[in-house]
Amino acid sequence: MFNRQDLSNIEIVEAPQTSRRFQAALFDFDGTLSLIREGWQNVMVPYFCEVLNEFVDPQKETFQNVETVVRDFVDKITGKQTIYQCIQLAEEVKLRGGTPLDPLLYKKEYLRRLQKRIQSRVDRLSNGLAHPDEYVVPGGRRFLQLLREAGIRLYLASGTDEYYVKQEAELLDLTSFFDGGVYGAQDDYKTFSKALVIDRLIKINNLSGEELLGFGDGYVEIENVRSVGGYAVGVATNEASPGYGVDEWKRNRLLDAGASAIIPDFSSSEALFAFLVGESRK
Asked: Is residue 206 a contact partner of residue 225, using CB atoms and an 8 Å limit?
């Protein structure tokens, strides 16, 4: 029996209408379900600042201002494919009078640095030295199970390259939950976006937008789900200390993007399920 009263971990901006009957759910991956890439911003932001600082005119701009600029555009684009952040980096180089590299080269160097940071996590999972749930957002596995048992079709869509998304979802033993598929960034970046995945899943399943649930920790998936009339839940996990409340920076960003509810994680799985879906679907 689900406890409908235990909503203390759910910040409700707008409750779903009782007439909604969710048929599909779209999940972001990094930071929403997976903690393998925790700290990626601490790789991307310093690297991008390093690139831009080569072109800074100290009479016009401080290094601190460059960091603010970088953080702002990295945050705003989070959820899209990584290449878009690298494209914006190239634009910022141009604005400072420089000649940028091909954005794909910026992406390649960023991924090299990030892989160095996370390789030990991947190795521990691959070798069985770490349990998958050590790198799953608290309660995530249980919540996916509840949705699947209710007959809701699940989709995973990430701005990370599809090869890595599929590899890491396998390492976390999450792939089997996503009967709708696992999707990630492509070399031809114009062929993939979360908006395209949403459009496709709505058409394939003959759904209305109101029948879609969305979960993510970035602007993009929240805005995309809201734009079709879906119900978007912002996952403001404190990735450095999972299970210890919301990340206020994430929370504010997700509210700005239009999230209808905010959760710190999925630790209150049954209550969240009852709030969103209702016992009648069980």
From this structure: no
Domains along the sequence of the chain with CATH: 11-35+136-281 (3.40.50.1000), 41-126 (no CATH)
Report the alpha-carbon distance of residue 236 to residue 245 in Å, rounded. Answer: 8
What letter would DSSP give residue 74?
H
The encoded tokens of residue 174 equal 């999450």
Residue 1's pLDDT is: 40
Closest CA to 28 of 185, 256, 142, 208: 185
- The residue with tokens 């235990």 is 6
| Contact yes or no for 106/86 (Cβ under 8 A) | yes
Q: Cα separation of 89 and 191, whole Å? A: 21
pTM: 0.90
For residue 125 the two structure tokens come to: 């999972």
**The residue to which tokens 């993510």 are assigned:** 216
| Percent of the residues in the chain that have a pLDDT greater than 70, as a whole number | 96
